[in-house]
C-alpha cells in the first residue's frame, strides 16, 4: 500500500508539473489582458496601483514555468535537494498568490469610487478629435460597452463639447450599430444607447479584477496538491531504504 501511494504521488507530481507549465502561460495571459484592458480604461481609473495584482500574477506565471522545470527534473531524478527546493519555491509562490487575491479584493472594492471620481473630468475634457486621448477613450468605451454619457445620453448636455458644438447632438459613438444614418441628434433618442457608461465601466473593471482573483485561487489550490505530493515523496524517500525510482524501477540505497 505504501509503495503504491508513493508511486501515485510521483506520477501525480509529474502531471502537476506539466500543469504548472500550462498555468504559467494562462497566468501571463491573464496579467497581460489586465494591462491591455487597463490601457483602454486608464482615463477612468487614475490609481495605477491597481495594476499591482497584474504585475505580480505575470511574475508568478514566469516563476511557475521555472517551477515546473525544477519539479519535473527533481521528480524524475528523485533528487532530495531538488524536491526540497521545489516545495520551498511552491510555498513562496502560494503565499504570493494569496497576497494577489487579497490585493485583488481590496482594489476591486475601490473601483467604483475611482471611476466616480474621474469619469466626469474625462467627459469634460472631450473635444471629439481622434488626436485627443480622453476623446478616444470615451468613444472607445461607448462603442465597446454600448453606452452613452455618464448615467444616460442627457449627461452630454452638461459638457463643454456639447455647448460649443450647438447642434443638439451627442458623439456618433453613442449611436446604435443597427441604426443607419444616425447623427447623434437628441431629437431621435431611439437611435442612441439608453444606458450610461459609469455603471458599465465599473462592472467591466470589477470583472477584470475577478479574473485575476479566480486565476490566483485556482492555481494556488493546484500548488497545494503539488506541495503535498512532493512532501509525500520526500518523506518516503528519507524513511524507506527500498525506495523505488520512478524511471528505472530500481531501488534507492
From TrEMBL:
Keyword Transmembrane helix in record: yes
CDD domains: TM4SF8_like_LEL
Its membrane topology: Multi-pass membrane protein
PROSITE patterns per record: TM4_1 (PS00421)
Residue spans crossing the bilayer: 12-36, 48-71, 83-107, 208-235
Keyword annotations: Glycoprotein, Membrane, Transmembrane, Transmembrane helix
Principal location listed in the UniProt entry: membrane
Recorded GO CC terms: plasma membrane
Pfam families cross-referenced by the UniProt entry: Tetraspanin (PF00335)
Subcellular compartments: Membrane
Record InterPro entries: Tetraspanin/Peripherin, Tetraspanin_animals, Tetraspanin_CS, Tetraspanin_EC2_sf
Assigned protein family: Belongs to the tetraspanin (TM4SF) family.
Functional description taken from the UniProt entry: Regulates the proliferation and migration of oligodendrocytes, a process essential for normal myelination and repair.
Binding partners and assembly: Interacts with claudin-11/CLDN11 and integrins.
Protein name: Tetraspanin
Amino acid at each position: 500500500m505504501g509503495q503504491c501511494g508513493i508511486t501515485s504521488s510521483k506520477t501525480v507530481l509529474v502531471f502537476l508539473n506539466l500543469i504548472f507549465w500550462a498555468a504559467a502561460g494562462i497566468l501571463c495571459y491573464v496579467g497581460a489582458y489586465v494591462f491591455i484592458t487597463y490601457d483602454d480604461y486608464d482615463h477612468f481609473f487614475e490609481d495605477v496601483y491597481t495594476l499591482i495584482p497584474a504585475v505580480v500574477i505575470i511574475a508568478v506565471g514566469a516563476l511557475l514555468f521555472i517551477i515546473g522545470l525544477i519539479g519535473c527534473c527533481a521528480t524524475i531524478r528523485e533528487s532530495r535537494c531538488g524536491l526540497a527546493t521545489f516545495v520551498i519555491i511552491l510555498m513562496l509562490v502560494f503565499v504570493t498568490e494569496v497576497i494577489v487575491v487579497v490585493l485583488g479584493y481590496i482594489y476591486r472594492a475601490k473601483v467604483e469610487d475611482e471611476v466616480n471620481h474621474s469619469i466626469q473630468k474625462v467627459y469634460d475634457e472631450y473635444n471629439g478629435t481622434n488626436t485627443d486621448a480622453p476623446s478616444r477613450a470615451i468613444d472607445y468605451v461607448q462603442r465597446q460597452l454600448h453606452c452613452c454619457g455618464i448615467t444616460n445620453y442627457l449627461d452630454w448636455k452638461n459638457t463643454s463639447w456639447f455647448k460649443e458644438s450647438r447642434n443638439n447632438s451627442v458623439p456618433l459613438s453613442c449611436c446604435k450599430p443597427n441604426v443607419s444614418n444616425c447623427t447623434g441628434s437628441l431629437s431621435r433618442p431611439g437611435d442612441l444607447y439608453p444606458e450610461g457608461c459609469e455603471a458599465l465601466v465599473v462592472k467591466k473593471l470589477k470583472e477584470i479584477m475577478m479574473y485575476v482573483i479566480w486565476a490566483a485561487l485556482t492555481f494556488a489550490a493546484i500548488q497545494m496538491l503539488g506541495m503535498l505530493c512532493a512532501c509525500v515523496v520526500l518523506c518516503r524517500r528519507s524513511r524507506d531504504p527500498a525506495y523505488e525510482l520512478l524511471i528505472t524501477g530500481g531501488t534507492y540505497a
